[in-house]
Amino acid sequence: MSLDQLIKGCKRNDTQAQSQLYKLYASKLFSVCLKYSRNYVEAEDNLQDAYLTIFKKIGQFKSQGSLEGWMKRITINTALQRYRSAGVFDIINEDQIEDVTVEVDDDDMSIDYLLNIIQELPDRYRLVFNLYALDDYSHKEIAAMLNISTGTSKSNLARARLILKEKIKQYKASPNSQSI
Q1: In the Cβ-directed half-sphere of 117, how many Cα atoms lie within 13 Å?
Q2: pLDDT digits over 94-126, tens only?
């Protein structure tokens, strides 16, 4: 089936089309879920919830832009929805924010280790870090998505970077870092 046929089938609630669309994009969207989840199980839950929303709202997709991009936005919003009402964000004075950069030498550590330390970040830091550093959202966009101030977004990013910088520093200093 072509992508257009899959979309039309999903709009008609055709389970075969839904199954094929799921198989076509599940691995990519699961990667998105892993970035915004605390662990593998939560990522699986977020993926399932995202697909339920995708199938419910597929009639709103107007074929302007890529289906994958539209589905990715729904997936990110689904994962973020868990945190919006939980009050995981602190209100911060922008004057308290210092800019921190994190240097990563790709040869030194595995992508699995990097994903693991990102997943270990507190929710508010992990979400802002992923949106800003990995998905290229601006602080203004992040603030709107998470119902926080731009200053809080900037502060949470700075704190995430500090934590990651320290964990990378510890990793590099560890004599066992090559086996992780």
Answers
A1: 20
A2: 444 444 444 444 456 788 888 889 999 999 899
Q: What is the pTM of this model?
A: 0.70
Please state the φ and ψ torsions of residue 137, each to the nearest 5 degrees: -85, 150
Distance CA 49, CA 51 (A): 5
Angle of the 111-119 helix axis to the 15-36 helix axis, nearest 10: 80
Within 8 A by CB and 6+ apart from 173, the residues are none
Per the structure block, which two tokens stand in for 72?
A: 């990715």
- Amino acid identity for residue 144 in this structure: A
Distance, in Å, from the CA atom of 55 to the CA atom of 10, rounded to the nearest integer, reads 7
| 8 Å CB contact between 32 and 76 | yes
Could you give the maximum distance between any two Cα atoms of the chain, in Å? 58
How far apart are alpha carbons 170 and 83 in whole angstroms? 29
Q: Give the H or E element holding residue 152.
A: helix 150-173
